[in-house]
Structures are given as structure tokens and as C-alpha cells.
Amino acid sequence: MKSYIKRLSDGSKLWEKILWWIIRLIQAGSIVYFLVIGNFQYALQAFGNLVGMFAWEIMMLFPERTFFRYIKSYVNTPLILGFFAASFGGVALNFYYSIPGYDSFLHIIGGGAFVWIGYEICTAMQLRDKKTCSVAIVLLCSLGLSMLFSNGWELFEFTFDQFFGGDSQHWSLELAIEAGSGVEKGIFDPHTPMRFALMDTMTDMVCNVAGAVIAYIGLRIKPFHHTGKNDVNKIIEKTAE
């Protein structure tokens, strides 16, 4: 336990810890709020997002031979902000229904962020295995991981809504009208409300791909782990000498 606590202390910066815990406490407050008003589905969804906010601490529990231990703490910050924007902003503050395009914007950002996270994972695998790899292959794998993560989230949303009565796909006609989104004026077709979930999922997937492609192009231009003094291939080659 002492070595684990030391890893957490030495592996992350003070400002990161402060930011993480402020957001986590706010998220925990939203869980309490949902429980008080009796919305147990939203409370469960918010709890799942809160667990996701501990991703880096969970990764540091793994043995040193796994690539998780090579993931830097700064990866946790965009993950926490993403969970917070999706859960607290989208659900607790009702932005999914009250702000047009909020969900699509998050998915574009998320698709790009997952390419970056995939890049960090691939680089961590290189460091663990002490193997050099072409940056083109690394980035192609990063793009694939983004598709897996972002579309995996869509599978979670579908499963959660179908089997646990949630509204993570945000197709509820009643909630949309209550938030003043304009569905009753024809922005969506109120005569086919069961298509809302399908439209949400397909729109999210398109946005995921768009964000991923943008991030992929950006990393092709500047693969920061494979250029200059941070070139992981050169670091591995020097270690092998």
C-alpha cells in the first residue's frame, strides 16, 4: 500500500490532484442530488462516471509489467473533464436537451481525445516492451483504439438504456419538450420518437469519426512522442546500447 501511495504522489502534480478532487466532489454531489429526488437511474449513471474519474489511480494498481503503469498522470485530466462534461453538464445541468449540439460537440472532442489517449497507450506499450515502432503504425493503432473506445461507449449507452431504464441516448420526447429544445416545433419528428435513439447513436458515431480523423492528422503532423528529445524510439535504442 505504501508503494502504491508513493506512486500516486510522485507520479502526479499537486495542481492535478486538486483539480481532480474538486471535480470528483462536485460529481459526488450530483449523485446525492439524484438519489434525493428519487432518480436512481441517473444516480447509477453518475456513479459510473465518477468511477471513471479514478482511471489513472486504478491503472497504477496494476503490476509493473503491464502497460498501464507507463501511462502518465496528465492523461487523467482530459478523461475527468470528459466524464464531468458528459455526466454533470449533460445530465445534471440538462445541457443535452437545453443546448443544441452539446452532445455532438462532446463526441467530436471525445473522438479526437481517444486518438490521443490511444497514442499514449501505444507509446506506453513501447516503453514496457522496449521495442521501437514506426510512428505510422503507432498512429494507425491509435486511430483504431479511438474507434474501439468511442463506439464501445455507444454500446454502453444502448445496453444501459435497454436493460436498466436509463436515458443515456437522450431520446426522451418528454424531457426534450420540458427542456424547451423545440422538438414539438419539428426539429425532430415527434411522430417517430423511437427513432431518436437511433439518430442519436448514428450522429454520435459520425462525430466520433470526425474528431478522430482531425486528431489523427494533427498527430501525423506533430507526433510529440516520436520527435525531438522525446522520441521514444531513440530513448529505447539508447537504453538497449
Task: Provide key terms for this protein.
single chain, 241 residues, mainly alpha, 11 helices, globular
Detailed description of the structure:
With 241 residues, the protein is mainly alpha-helical. 71% of the residues lie in helices and 0% in strands. The chain has eleven helices and no strands. It has helices at 2-11, 14-36, 40-52, 55-59, 76-92, 95-98, 102-129, 135-164, 173-178, 196-221, 232-240. The longest helix is centred in the middle third of the chain and has 30 residues, at 135-164. It is globular. It starts with a helix and ends with a helix. 28% of the residues are buried.
Distance between the termini: 35 Å
Q: Give the helices and strands as they follow along the chain.
A: HHHHHHHHHHH
Helix amount: over 70%
**Global Rg:** 20 Å
Oligomer: single chain
The coarse silhouette is globular
**DSSP strand count:** 0
Q: How does the helix and strand content classify structurally?
A: mainly alpha
- Largest sheet properties: none
Roughly what fraction of the amino acids lie in strands? Answer: under 5%
Look at the structure and give the mean pLDDT. 85
**Helical segment tally?**
11
SSE order and pairing:
Layout: H1 2-11, H2 14-36, H3 40-52, H4 55-59, H5 76-92, H6 95-98, H7 102-129, H8 135-164, H9 173-178, H10 196-221, H11 232-240
Helix pairs in contact: 2-3, 2-5, 3-5, 5-7, 7-8, 7-10, 8-10
